[in-house]
Amino acid sequence: MVYNPDGRPNLIGGTEEEQAIHQQIGYMRSDASVETASSPAANNPNLLVETVLLNYMALHGEQNQFSTLFPGHGLGNSTLQDSLTAFEPIVNGIIGG
Description:
- By secondary structure, the chain is mostly helical.
- It has helices at about 15-20, 45-60, 65-70, 80-85.
- The longest helix has 15 residues, at about 45-60.
- The two termini are about 25 Å apart.
């Protein structure tokens, strides 16, 4: 869940099809259980945390620093990380003052 006081956060992607890919990570089975092979985070709490951190960094435009800050991460290469990233940045600069 993302809250942006300036309006609705934008999903990554230039088309509706690309945005649809990023609006949900993983999926459920017909019996309402998680499809554990649907994403790296689906069956691994550690990778779930890493996915949350990656997306938090993406909201700040810093997802390119993920591998440097977390060198032992399990989210694969930048292509896989891009597929796990949902939103365009909503923060420009430093918050606070």
